Every structure is written in structure tokens, then in C-alpha cells.
Amino acid sequence: MTNNKLELVNVTKVFTSRTNQQTTALAKINMKIPDHRFISIIGPSGCGKSTLFNIISGLMESSEGDILVDGKSVSGMSGIVGYMLQKDLLLPWRTIVDNVILGMELKGIPKKEAKKIALPLLAKYGLGGFENSYPSQLSGGMKQRAALLRTILYDRDIILLDEPFGALDAQTRSVMQEWLLDLWDDFQKTILFITHDIDEAIYLSDEVYIMSARPGGIKEHLSIDIPRPRKPTIVTSSQFVEYKEKALSLLSDEVQKSQKLEEVVSK
Length: 267
Ligand code: ADP
Ligand code: MG
What we know:
Blueprint: E1 4-16, E2 22-34, E3 38-42, H1 49-56, E4 64-69, E5 72-73, E6 82-84, H2 96-100, H3 102-106, H4 111-124, H5 140-153, E7 158-162, H6 170-187, E8 190-194, H7 198-204, E9 207-211, E10 218-223, H8 238-266
Parallel strand pairs: 3-8, 3-9, 6-7, 7-8
Antiparallel strand pairs: 1-2, 1-4, 4-5, 9-10
Bound molecules: adenosine-5'-diphosphate and magnesium ion (MG).
């Protein structure tokens, strides 16, 4: 028996190009994630973060290694986790409520029933009055909220979010962070969250995984022992700043390495 909700064992991904050139994108990734945790993953651009989520979600096969959910292998299986892709777009021809119930529809829940579940949540999470609007009529933050709600309502224990707030301005981002923490608390999910924002990673998470430059591996794993609920002002506390310094120095080593790698490749 295991106490981990999700476990990655030596997950490795090698891409083979049409000219048979091999690139190792991920090398032996190991993670043990207990239930109901909020986990962030940060790492230099191109280190394989999105690839890792594609593999966990079953959209892409790993080259080696295993993925366990509740102690059972789910490698290559799709539909086990909820996944919001890096560029997860709402369908422009569907209204907001119809977009939000998409995951439930795919699971075979009748539309009427799905709407009954979704409508109060749209109201609770700041989208009341926009149920019948189309995505083009909403602000960036509202669209992200709708996409997140859609992912949550797919109703899986594990949710993968790939840089969901990357395109938002700082003000909207901070509102969205509070909103996501509420959602996490209400729905008791295990969340894996990719971000390039160190403050965001520390503020939201129980644990922060720092990935190394290509081939992507786990460089270090920080436990963030700051009690919850956390106030946004904790980012100025000495404890927070200490975590930030640690994460920054680990990350800047890796960013330098990945830039050197790019210089070599482009020569
Ligand atoms: P990140 O999300 O950390 O920025 P990605 O996971 O998108 O990084 O990409 C990691 C590496 O794998 C990159 O070098 C990228 O070019 C390569 N890669 C990603 N997807 C594919 C693919 N389908 N085929 C070939 N190479 C890929
Ligand atoms: Mg990515």
C-alpha cells in the first residue's frame, strides 16, 4: 500500500525526429505526491514541463518509467486526471455555461443535469450573469476562470494546470490565485501547477519542484512550511523571502545552463 495519490517512477521521454535524431526531453523523473496537496513545478523554458503533463494525462506515451495513481499503474491511460493545457481555449461557438459543462458532457452526464451543477458554481465563482455570453465577450481573467471551472467539473481527483495565469496582468493574476485556492479548498483536489513565477509557486504551494535544464529532471524539491490560510502580504515575510532566494538561485543556475545549450545548438 502507498499513501501517495500520484507517483512518478523514472519517467523518461525521448523524442525521435524524422531524421532519426534523438532528444531526451525528460530523464528519470521521480515524484511522490500525497493526496490533497498543491504542488508547483518551475523550470527553465523547454525543460519538459508540458511534456511531463502530456505524459501524466495519457496524451503522450513515456519512453520509460511508470505512473501510479492510488498505487496502481495508469501509464498511457487517458481520462484519469483533469488537464488544463497551456493554451486551453474555450470553444468560441459555445456559450460560457456550455463550455464549462463540456467535460461533464464528455463523461455522458445529460446536458440538463450538467447545467444544474454548473450554474450555481458559475455564480459562486464570479461568472454569474455571463452564463449565456460567448467567450469573446469576456475578459482574459474570466475566460481563464471558465476554463478552470471546466477542468474542475471534469471531476477527477488530480488536476494538472499548465501555466494557467501566464498571460494575465499582475492584478488579475493575484485575484485568480485567491480564486484557485478557494476552489482547491472547496473541491479537495490534488493540484499540479506549472508556472514560471517563483512568487506564485511559493505562495500557492505545499511543495515546489524545481526542474533542471534539458534533459529535464528534478533538481530539487522544496517543502513550503508556511501555514494556511496565507495572506497575500506574506510575500514580504522573511520566511517567504528565504524560500524565494533558495528557489531563485537553483533556478538561475538552470536557466544559465539552458541558455548555453541554446547557444551551442544555434551555432
Ligand atoms: P516546457 O513546457 O518546459 O517549456 P516542453 O515540454 O514544451 O517544455 O518541451 C520540452 C522539450 O521537448 C523541448 O526541447 C521541445 O522542443 C521538445 N518537444 C516537445 N514536444 C515535442 C514533440 N512532440 N516532438 C519533438 N520534440 C518535442
Ligand atoms: Mg510548456
